[in-house]
Hints:
The protein is mostly helical. The chain is built from twelve helices and two strands, in the order ααααβαααααβααα. The protein has a two-stranded antiparallel sheet with strand order 1-2. α4 (74-100) packs across α11 (245-264). It is globular, with a radius of gyration of 19 Å. The N and C termini lie far apart (44 Å).
Amino acid sequence: MGLPISKLRACPFLLRLLLFLAIPLLAWLPWVGLGGWFFPEARAYLWLPLYALLLVWLGLWGSGFAAYGLDGSWPCRGGILWGLGIGVGGLFLLLGLEGSLGWLSWRAVGGGSLLVYGLLGLLLGLGVALAEELFFRGWLLQEMLLDYGCSTAVWGSSFLFAMAHFLKPLPEILATWPQFPGLWLMGLLLVQARVWNQNKLGLSLGLHAGWVWGMAWVNNLAWIDYTGRAPAWLTGIGGNPLAGLMGLLFLGGTFAFLNGLAQAGWLPADLEKR
């Protein structure tokens, strides 16, 4: 690409972050213009090329994804599988609990739709998690560690992860702001998942993908209906579990469960050491 990456790496963090993001964003703008013109019905998916460009740029900056903890080792591959299972399984456990309490009801869906939307949700979850984990728990965390140290890097990268989900029109921000604490807590949990996984991205990527997979599966099928028997602040404002107290408890429970697995030596990273 002819870009002086070594010089960019030597810049102060804030300038480094600005330049790092500006390059894929500038490359993405033509996609937005052309895509919105020729395929107006597909505007909701115009962010996909940005994720693809970000992945390319991350690979160039780090000379491959292994620099951020994503490689072919067993801790990483096993972490992805464990994370997927715990992520999607935990989400359905939460929804099942709320259903048993009468807070939501499940609609009947056909087997074909269940399979198709399940596969589409899995692909979406893996794609979103791959880009976001490589950036937030990979590049951003490591770059902040270089300039600010561990505590600031952990809290700061998680804060920026939550903030990034509010790059939307002001009315939407005002309507969805209760999601912010849950997103920040999610970011902190995903950083800790990397620590549990021998500093690999596998577990955090799998967890993130599992959550996105589960929510996409449920939402695309219109699989559940909230009954209104519990307040929205409990189940999640706007139908988003992270915007409610149950979602925060769910993340806390996930942390406790994973910590227990790590202490017992059951995570893939620990098994490899035996």
